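INTERNAL AUDIT FORM
Audit reference: QA-55
Scope: verify that the stored structure record matches its stored sequence.
Auditor: D.O.
Record contents follow.
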Amino acid sequence: MGRKNRRAPQDSLKDVESLSNYGGAIVTKRDEAYTVRLIPAKRALKNYVCPGCGGNIAPGVAHTVAWRSDYIMGDSAAIAERRHWHLRCWNIF
């Protein structure tokens, strides 16, 4: 009998360090510091709901993902609460 190739289950929360350090910029908005990353269209693979307008961010649409940089509960909790924003919605937030 052959072995089945099984993928390791993907953790829904990526490694905190890779998210924190991969291409992010620290931005201050409304007296709070956020880590912000641009998600290019080719890497946007899922549907998201923008917290700014409540509209859908479809796959293939470039957008921004942001999370609190100075979250009191720590980096893991901040990344777990990250949100995906339309570029315009993030800019006017």
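Auditor finding: record pair retrieved intact. The longest strand covers residues 32-39.
Action required: none
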